[in-house]
Design a protein that fits this description.
The chain has one domain: Orthogonal Bundle (Arc Repressor Mutant, subunit A). It contains 4 helices and no strands. The chain is mainly α. Helix 1 packs across helix 2. The structure holds zinc ion (ZN).
Amino acid sequence: MDDRDDDPPCNAVVELLTAYLDGALPPRDRQLIERHLDDCPYCADYLDQLRFAILMAGTLRRDDVPQQLMDALVGAFRAGGRAP
Ligand SMILES: [Zn+2]
């Protein structure tokens, strides 16, 4: 019995992973990819790396954060260290 009939090949999955992370894929394709990721450690690993890369690319640089907001954040951080 072959239940891998509609399992896409790894290179097709890898090409779709960016769209997958963007939520740009139709539900049917998402399902195919999720099923493939369950079975395929290589593509699952690639997805992790891709996620990490996107996270890093989307990270705010310190320069982009207004000083006022930084001060507020640091203040909240310090205040949070102790019970009121
Ligand atoms: Zn794969």
